[in-house]
Design goal:
Blueprint (H helix, E strand, L loop, with lengths): L7 H7 L4 E3 L5 E9 L2 E12 L3 E6 L9 E8 L5 E15 L2 E8 L5 H9 L3 E2 L6 E6 L1 E3 L10 E6 L3 E6 L8 E5 L5 E12 L2 E8 L2 H14 L1
Antiparallel strand pairs: 1-3, 1-8, 2-3, 2-5, 3-4, 4-7, 5-6, 6-7, 9-11, 10-13, 11-12, 12-15, 13-14, 14-15
Protein name: PilZ domain-containing protein
Organism: Aporhodopirellula aestuarii
Pfam family, one: PilZ
């Protein structure tokens, strides 16, 4: 899939939108660099991407000698297969022998390419990685609210959780969440929407102790 320049309007609207890479086992990336008349391939790992550029983690012997390169991105399903020319514009050492490089595209990418990468589950807007769980939990509401009889914790991160409930919860409502192992933490509802005959809601942890308790319990379970 070719990388095409976006229209000026869409570029303005999307140039600051960065999408975090996910499912890196399905997302294959490499930098192609010309060295002494040979094209050298450097496997790399996508960190994030926007229509104007991306960040990649790669091990380069002499990064100061490299500036112009071609980035190839593809996924195992074959839905995404694109090459973009660009320039390495910054680097930050992240581990021994590996740096994170900023890669600025020569021309803006068509925003539809990123939309497709989102649809394929290769990149996400979320800043925090989420882990899918799908486990039954208990939710305790403040006195006066209808009791939640059935609730499922669908996924979690270091900052919050996504829940399915048989009762419609209220935005800003505070809940006490208890996992099957007995770990508890307090969360605050940020958004609610219908989901079949249930309701889906996104919640954030009220404090660090709650975040640690729930994350530790669910990580140990998985």
């Amino acid at each position: 899939m070719p990388a095409n320049p976006s229209t000026p309007g869409s570029a303005q609207n999307r140039s600051c939108d960065r999408f975090r890479a996910r499912n890196t086992e399905n997302l294959i990336a490499e930098l192609l660099v010309l060295q002494e008349d040979d094209v050298v391939r450097h496997p790399c790992q996508m960190a994030d991407i926007s229509v104007g550029g991306c960040a990649v983690k790669v091990s380069l012997a002499h990064p100061e000698e490299m500036s112009v390169a071609v980035l190839r991105i593809r996924d195992k399903s074959g839905a995404i297969d694109l090459e973009v020319a660009g320039r390495l514009c910054w680097n930050q050492q992240t581990s021994v022998g590996s740096n994170t490089f900023g890669f600025r595209f020569r021309r803006l990418m068509d925003g539809k390419v990123i939309d497709q990468m989102v649809a394929e589950g290769l990149v996400t807007r979320r800043q925090e990685a989420r882990t899918t769980v799908g486990t039954k939990i208990q939710l305790r509401r403040a006195h006066g609210h209808p009791t939640v009889k059935v609730a499922t914790l669908e996924d979690f991160s270091t900052t919050g959780v996504r829940i399915h409930s048989d009762q419609e919860l209220s935005v800003t409502e505070r809940l006490l969440l208890t996992t099957p192992s007995g770990a508890s933490g307090s969360v605050s509802v940020k958004w609610v929407k219908p989901f079949g005959n249930q309701f889906e809601c996104g919640c954030i942890f009220q404090n660090l102790n709650s975040a640690r308790a729930i994350n530790d319990a669910l990580t140990a379970r998985s």
